[in-house]
């Protein structure tokens, strides 16, 4: 049976993502610059991140004023409905700043702490990914399924790097040791899109240290609904120390190898 609340949340997330994606795609100033920095001078926020988050939260609040929010650019509200929206208005800000196409809008809805809806809008790729808990994952209306299992040495795995120099130096060392044991490594620059690419069968795995809930909330649900496994260190859920997502046959060996290489610490 379908849950009308989940259908409502999906419709709202899709429309909010569409509107924010259009704003970011069509409203990008030719002279776009950095509005602020976060963890380091190269971890940037643009004026468009802030505008997109205001658009999303305004639209959702108009339709569901009792819901809570957690947004990368500061949106925070407890809410009283049991629904919380987890929002990354522009995942892949550095790509966006440089005019690269790999950026997205990520919107997830949680019900009583459980992720139930995820939408990732990738305007420059012409793709809208979405998932509803228990209903599978889709891109532009087509059902998604992760790739068949491959041996770890034949796996194409994506990752990302922190903006703090000391952290990314260790991450580079982990990647150096990992590359000879895989088919290859990719680095796209948007955690949300990379999780969706895993769901779409374009990757065998993905890992990263230092992610926040808004980076992965929608993409994690989309990947899992497409048949992937997600987690953190062995036996633990994904968190800021480590996020791992992969096809079922790749997940455990990749997770074990990342543990061995110390991918979860600086």
Order of helices and strands: HEEHEEEHEEEEEEHEHEHEEH
Query: If you compute it from the alpha carbons, what radius of gyration comes out, rounded to the nearest whole angstrom?
Result: 18 Å
User: Helical content, roughly?
Assistant: 25-40%
State the separation between the terminal residues, measured CA to CA: 46 Å
Widest beta sheet: strand line-up: 4-3-5-6-7-8-9-10
Tell me the strand percentage band. Answer: 25-35%
**Helical/strand content category:** alpha+beta
Query: What shape does the CA trace take?
Result: globular
Counting DSSP E segments of at least 2 residues, the number of strands comes to: 15
Largest sheet: 8 strands, mixed
Count of helical regions: 7
Output mean pLDDT: 94
Low-confidence stretches: none
Outline of the structure:
This protein has 266 residues and is α+β, with helices and mostly antiparallel strands.
Can you walk through the features of this model?
By secondary structure, this protein is of the alpha+beta class. It has 7 helices and 15 strands. Strands 4-3-5-6-7-8-9-10 form an 8-stranded mixed beta sheet, with helices on both faces. It has a 5-stranded mixed beta sheet with strand order 12-11-13-15-14, with helices on both faces. A two-stranded antiparallel sheet has the order 1-2. Helix 1 packs antiparallel against helix 2 and helix 5 packs parallel to helix 6. The radius of gyration is 18 Å and the shape is globular. The model has no long low-confidence stretch (mean pLDDT 94).
């Amino acid at each position: 049976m379908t849950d009308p609340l989940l259908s409502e949340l999906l419709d709202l997330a899709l429309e909010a993502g569409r509107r924010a994606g259009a704003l970011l795609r069509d409203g990008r100033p030719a002279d776009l610059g950095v509005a602020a920095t976060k963890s380091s001078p190269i971890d940037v926020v643009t004026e468009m991140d802030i505008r997109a988050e205001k658009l999303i939260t305004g639209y959702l609040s108009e339709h569901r004023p009792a819901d809570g929010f957690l947004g990368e650019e500061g949106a925070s509200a407890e809410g009283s409905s049991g629904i919380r929206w987890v929002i990354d208005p522009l995942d892949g800000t550095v790509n966006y700043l440089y005019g690269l196409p790999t950026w997205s809008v990520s919107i997830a809805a949680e019900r009583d702490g459980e992720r139930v809806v995820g939408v990732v809008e990738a305007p420059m790729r012409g793709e809208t990914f979405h998932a509803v808990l228990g209903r599978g994952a889709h891109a532009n209306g087509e059902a998604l399924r992760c790739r068949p299992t491959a041996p770890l040495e034949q796996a194409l795995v994506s990752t990302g790097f922190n903006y703090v120099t000391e952290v990314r130096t260790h991450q580079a060392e982990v990647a150096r040791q990992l590359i000879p044991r895989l088919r290859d490594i990719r680095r796209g620059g948007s955690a949300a899109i990379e999780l969706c690419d895993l769901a779409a069968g374009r990757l065998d795995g993905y890992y990263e240290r230092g992610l926040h809930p808004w980076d992965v909330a929608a993409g994690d649900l989309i990947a899992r609904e497409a048949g992937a496994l997600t987690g953190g260190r062995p036996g633990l859920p994904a968190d800021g120390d480590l996020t791992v997502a992969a096809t079922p046959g790749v997940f455990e060996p990749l997770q074990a190898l990342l543990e061995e290489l110390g991918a979860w610490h600086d």
